[in-house]
TrEMBL record:
Transmembrane segments: none annotated. This is Uncharacterized protein. Residues 9-65, 66-116 form the HTH myb-type domain. InterPro entries: Homeodomain-like_sf (IPR009057), Myb_dom (IPR017930), Myb_TF_plants (IPR015495), SANT/Myb (IPR001005). Residues 158-172 have a biased composition (Low complexity). Its main location: nucleus. It is found in: Nucleus. It comes from Brassica napus. Residues 131-157 have a biased composition (Polar residues). Gene3D superfamilies: Homeodomain-like (1.10.10.60). It comes from the Eukaryota.
Length: 266
DNA sequence: AAACATTCCAACCGCGAGGTG
DNA sequence: GCACCTCGCGGTTGGAATGTT
């Protein structure tokens, strides 16, 4: 047998949605609720396939969708979850309230992936690239990286992290220093933020570099327990409560999270 | 100002999972 | 177990917006 194509039909419209179509879809769903996507176009008076309606609703029209630039927290969550789960965009998006899988995927592909590559980090493995012209953890003259007691590069390459070498909240890393040095204010929700994103790339890259390397180190640890229950004490973001299990390993992980909490105060 | 290049994201496509009869 | 359907997911693409020459 052959699958019947979803969107076969005469006069079915494709491409960008008009405001008129949006109104029709919103109005129909408000009245009848979601579901039954195959019938929605006909009932709502739309010349679209059901799939297209579902995507339009899920990715754009849903009332609780947050748009605009991703926050540092969100970027970190994406990188960390990607390190442990790979391209499971729907899984990652579930931990980012009001973000859609499509948006997360786009953000990864257009921003985060490139930044990791720029820093010599393989976006697939989250480990330093083999031929790395731009070392993942550059030793700068500022000495900030050197003050980090944990050699994350080595750990990520070895694929494991000993308990002793795990970060501690008091001395875990210089993320806060780096964050504080990133003076560029976030341009929340601004669509004209392209320039800003590139201008702040340098300092942001440092942060991402750090986070990505850490993510690599803890990736295996996370993946083993990601489906577990929660660590309620995590203060980075409530959504992360869904991520981590109550194992002793993850108490160490929360140490890292606590080291990142100053982000909330920026 | 125009032509060309690059970036970005909304939307499309194909596939697989799960449900139903 | 099968055929079929709906839905959701992840990869890809078209084209508008923006940047560069």
């Amino acid at each position: 047998m052959s699958r019947k194509p979803c969107c076969v039909g005469e006069g079915l419209k494709k491409g960008a949605w008009t405001t008129e179509e949006d109104k029709k879809l919103i109005s129909y769903i408000h009245e009848h609720g979601e579901g039954g996507w195959r019938d929605i176009p006909q009932k709502a008076g739309l010349k679209r396939c059901g799939k297209s309606c579902r995507l339009r609703w899920a990715n754009y029209l849903k009332p609780d969708i947050k748009r605009g630039e991703f926050s540092y927290e969100e970027e970190q969550i994406i990188i960390m979850l990607h390190a442990s789960r790979g391209n499971k965009w729907s899984v990652i998006a579930r931990h980012l309230p009001k973000r859609t899988d499509n948006e997360v995927k786009n953000y990864w592909n257009t921003h985060l992936k490139k930044r990791l590559i720029d820093q010599g980090i393989d976006p697939l493995t989250h480990k330093p690239l083999a031929s790395n012209p731009n070392p993942a953890t550059p030793r700068t003259s500022e000495g900030q990286d050197d003050s980090n007691p944990i050699n994350l590069d080595e750990q990520s390459q070895s694929g494991s992290m000993s308990p002793k070498s795990l970060p501690h909240s008091s001395s875990s890393c210089n993320l806060q220093t780096i964050i504080n040095s990133d003076e560029t204010p976030r341009n929340n929700g601004s669509l004209s933020s392209k320039k800003c994103r590139f201008k702040k790339l340098s300092s942001t890259s440092k942060l991402l570099n750090k986070v990505a390397t850490k993510a690599s180190s803890i990736g295996n640890m996370l993946s083993a327990s990601m489906e577990g229950s929660l660590i309620r004490s995590t203060t980075l973001s409530p959504c992360l409560n869904d991520v981590f299990s109550e194992t002793s390993q993850f108490l160490r992980w929360t140490s890292l999270i606590h080291s990142l909490t100053p982000l909330n105060n920026i």
